[in-house]
Amino acid sequence: MMKKFAILLVAMLCTTTAFAQFETDYGRVVNNAKNPSSWEVGLRLGDTGLQAVADFAYNDDCYFEARFGMLYSSRMYFTLAGWDLGYVGGVCADFTALHYWKCYNWDWTPRAGTWFLDAGAGLNIGGAKNYMYLGVSGSAKFGFEFREVPIRLSVDYTPVLGPSIAYGMKKHGFEKGAYSDFFWSGLYNFGVTATYYF
């Protein structure tokens, strides 16, 4: 999985440098992501697996972000408040919608690009067979935007606060219709993202 992701990232960078066209201001590339109505698309690798990412900046200071992830495992083991959900094979899906504010930009490396810190809030939902979670999300994103290519790299922490719900499960031969508990795994949602902006 990591090898495929690395190959995809290298291919994306090569394609971008070969075909991207830039608008310059005294030799400096104008940052299209700062302009209203700009888009970014890319990939995020993190706690929720590999996710497709799309951002839409509707003004100079704010943007919306949507993430859809798919995590495959043949041995995901879930327990919820003592209820044994057993092994769940297959795909676990995750969707997150966030609103971000562009908080800070630093010109620490003026020849290479700019550093940024964004903060956001939104909603998260996901799950697998007989299991789901839903909650509110906060996010802090720290990253780097290249000056010569329309690429942004970032790391983020996006915790989710909300319930996780098991349903249609049995314990000791007795059926339990549904049971909920706090979604503890949502507190460990770290990720690395690479996006192409246009």
Question: Can you walk through the features of this model?
Answer:
The relative contact order is 0.19. A hairpin with a 2-residue loop joins strand 11 (163-171) and strand 12 (174-182). The radius of gyration is 20 Å and the shape is elongated. By secondary structure, it is mainly β. The strands form 2 sheets. It has an 8-stranded antiparallel barrel. Residues 4-37 have low confidence and may be disordered. The chain has 1 helix and 13 strands. It has a single domain, classed as Porin, CATH 2.40.160. It has one helix at 2-19, and strands at residues 24-25, 28-29, 38-46, 49-57, 62-80, 83-109, 113-128, 131-146, 151-157, 160-161, 163-171, 174-182, 190-197. The two termini are 27 Å apart.
What is the compact description of this entry?
This protein has one helix at residues 2-19, and strands at residues 24-25, 28-29, 38-46, 49-57, 62-80, 83-109, 113-128, 131-146, 151-157, 160-161, 163-171, 174-182, 190-197. The chain has 198 residues and is mainly beta. The chain has a single domain, classed as Porin, CATH 2.40.160.
Topology:
Blueprint lengths: L1 H18 L4 E2 L2 E2 L8 E9 L2 E9 L4 E19 L2 E27 L3 E16 L2 E16 L4 E7 L2 E2 L1 E9 L2 E9 L7 E8 L1
Antiparallel strand pairs: 1-2, 3-4, 3-13, 4-5, 5-6, 6-7, 7-8, 8-9, 8-10, 8-11, 9-13, 11-12
